[in-house]
Design brief:
The protein contains 8 helices and 2 strands, in the order ααααββαααα. By secondary structure, it is mostly helical.
């Protein structure tokens, strides 16, 4: 058997990697718990069965890998990692030969991933703020150092009809809905003033107060724009 294996590796220009594997194992430098190696073992097990229905996943590490991948990236991750599998092949008996599958990784189905017992319990956190549940989870792990991260949002003008505003759900310097209310009121007042100036019978005092209100709002908007321009220039100077 070994001469056939060596011949196959040499034929595919991979003989050097077979030698690397033997060397690492003989010198006790190979990590048999490495996730890539365990996933490779799953593929060996997959191709060694005579039916896909007989495939089993004995390694807890690979079960956790696929489970976390589904949690983080959902079904797209599973479809991409698995490959085409038996797509386009018709079978009326329910028997699918692993040897004819076009796979990238041997990957459990959705049902099996959900049923796998996983010790790691990750809370389902939605919305902005401080994730106290994650802090408690990390504090229970036996490690000495951690990295705290802040996931912020950047405004990208022009991406939406509202000039690219991103709602931080009240965690920004000024809630987005308040800004929309201010701009809506300013627009309504300007429309009213336009109507009054075109022949309305309202008193001059009313128009004067409305103009003062609009002037105040426009001044505030100009101030905000100047602050934004100054911030952008400052960021560009740091980059250069």
């Amino acid at each position: 058997m070994l001469p056939d294996v060596v011949h196959a590796f040499r034929k595919n220009n991979l003989i050097i990697y077979l030698l690397m594997l033997f060397t690492l194992i003989s010198t006790a430098k190979f990590d048999f718990k490495n996730i890539c190696f365990l996933l490779f073992c799953d593929i060996l097990r997959y191709w060694s069965t005579d039916s896909t229905s007989k495939m089993r996943y004995p390694f807890k590490e690979t079960q956790q890998f696929w489970w976390l991948g589904k949690i983080l990236f959902h079904g797209r991750f599973q479809r991409f990692m698995s490959g085409y599998k038996h797509a386009g092949q018709s079978n009326l008996t329910g028997y699918l030969n692993p040897a004819t599958a076009r796979i990238n990784f041997a990957l459990p189905s959705h049902i099996h991933i959900n049923e796998h017992p996983i010790d790691l319990k990750i809370p389902d956190i939605k919305g902005p703020g401080i994730f106290h549940e994650m802090i408690q989870l990390i504090s229970s792990q036996k490690k000495n150092s951690y990295v705290l991260t802040f996931d912020g949002k950047k405004l990208a003008p022009g991406l939406t009809d509202e000039a690219g505003d991103i709602d931080l759900l009240g965690y920004g310097p000024e809630p987005l809905h308040q800004q929309h209310e201010q701009y809506t009121k300013s627009k309504e007042i300007i429309s009213k003033i336009t109507g009054y100036l075109q022949g309305s019978s309202k008193s001059d005092n009313y128009i004067k107060n409305a103009l003062l209100d609009v002037s105040h709002r426009v001044s505030k908007s100009i101030r905000d724009l100047r602050q934004l321009i100054a911030t952008i220039r400052k960021q560009r100077s740091f980059r250069t």
